[in-house]
Amino acid sequence: MSIRLSVLDYASIDDGSDAETAVAAMDRLALRAEELGYEHFWLPEHHGFDFSASTAPEMLIARLASITTELQIGSGGIMLPNYSAYKVAESFLTMATFAPGRINLGVGSVTGAGRAEAIALNDEKERQFPFERKVADLLGFLGAQHAEGSTYEGMQAHPRAKQLPTPWVLSSSGNTAGLAAQHGTGFTFAHFINPGTKGPKAAELYRQQFTPSIFGDTPEVMVAVFVAVADDQEHAELLAKAFHLWLLDTQTRNPGARLRSLDEVADIEFTDAQQAAIAKNADRILVGTGHSVLAQLEQLARNYGTDHMMVNPYVPGARNRQRALELLAEARDGRAS
Predict the structure, then answer these.
(1) What is the mean pLDDT of residues 321-333?
(2) 148: how many CB neighbours lie within 10 A of its CB?
(3) Is the pLDDT of residue 253 over 80?
(4) Where along the chain do its domains lie?
(5) Distance of CA 92 to CAs 11, 85, 222, 320, Å?
(6) H or E element: which one contains 17?
(7) Does residue 57 register a pLDDT over 80?
């Protein structure tokens, strides 16, 4: 099958590096992704973690929209519990005025933060609105079409861009599939967080219940997964080893840990307990050469009933991340020819 490829980039801060270097590497990765024919380039929202420079994805989206011409640039995602739906609508409508038709607004239901950071982000709020209401309000402000009886009926956010941002509802459990279907938005499943059977079931539910809206006529499912791709299997396995060590670090040692360098990772021997934990996480990342990972992506796409895969090359080194995109694109283009 022929699949469409997109990118989720953490704006990764490599071990021994800094945020300024990470943002410059993000720029280069986005420009290369555009050259290679990737469709979307999204940034997450992470608070209080040393491994990512993407704490304010809307700022990075605006930056990337200004240096690219074809890529769909967006959030994977904006964590709605932290913000006013009205303000989010204003920010993304503003970006849509200078990158018409290229701004994506992916929204999530968690804070993207540790407990202390979540409190700091919300310290003036007396209560939290349910995610379902936040999504409905946000889409209402974007499209000037609130449901009858809404607190904000008749309100719209400004500026009124000629082409609205494209909204997507994110999920790592499947619980928001019906919400995305109800509002006619795109649906993105984080297979890299939850690689079990919930994702394909959620995608099917979303398609079955999808209602066309001003945001989309047909259901659109995108699946996100970690990848470690290299010119040979041995190097890919080393990249994956660094990834798995990072997972172990974040789960047991330091939630904000950065990826360790390949030089450091190469000599580390995992304990039996660590090997067991790695085995549990194995399906979160696809490992191999460009052709082998493309084949794995195609199989995963079939499982979800989609043709749209979003890859997160979260491995050490900006050059390794860029090479992953190049190898996948070469394999895709070779398959197409």
Answers:
(1) 98
(2) 5
(3) no
(4) 4-226+290-336
(5) 20, 11, 21, 31
(6) none
(7) yes
pLDDT digit string, tens, across residues 278-311: 999 999 999 999 999 999 999 999 999 999 999 9
At 336 the pLDDT is 61
- CATH number (3.30.70.860, 3.20.20.30, 3.30.1300.10, 3.40.50.620) of 4-226+290-336 reads 3.20.20.30
**For residues 251-270, average pLDDT:** 89
Q: Is residue 297 a contact partner of residue 286, using CB atoms and an 8 Å limit?
A: yes
Query: Are the C-beta atoms of residues 325 and 36 closer than 8 Å to each other?
Result: yes
CA distance 134 to 136: 6
Contacts of 33 by beta carbon, 8 Å cutoff, 6+ apart: 7, 41, 71, 325
The residue-averaged pLDDT of 52-78 equals 97
The string of DSSP codes covering 123-163 is TT-S-PPPHHHHHHHHHHHHHT-PPTT-TTTT---SS--SS
Beta-carbon neighbour count of residue 158 at 10 Å? 10
Residue with tokens 């290679």: 36
Cβ contact 166:188 at 8 Å:
no
Q: Average pLDDT of 91-116? A: 95
Q: Are 54 and 22 in contact (CB under 8 A)?
A: no
pLDDT band per the 50, 70, 90 thresholds, residue 61: very high
8 Å CB contact between 14 and 22: yes
Instruction: Give CA–CA dist 302/287, Å, rounded.
Output: 18
Residue 127 burial (CB < 10 Å; 0-12/13-18/19+)? Answer: exposed
What token pair was written down for 333?
Answer: 């283009």
CA distance 228 to 315: 7
In the chain, DSSP assigns E strands to 4-8, 40-43, 72-79, 103-108, 166-171, 186-190, 221-229, 285-288, 308-312
CB 50 within 8 A of CB 256: yes
Instruction: Read off the amino acid at residue 332.
Output: R
- How far is Cα 183 from Cα 204, in angstroms, rounded to an integer? 16
Residues 6 or more apart in contact with residue 59 via CB below 8 angstroms = none
Q: Which amino acid is at 166?
A: T
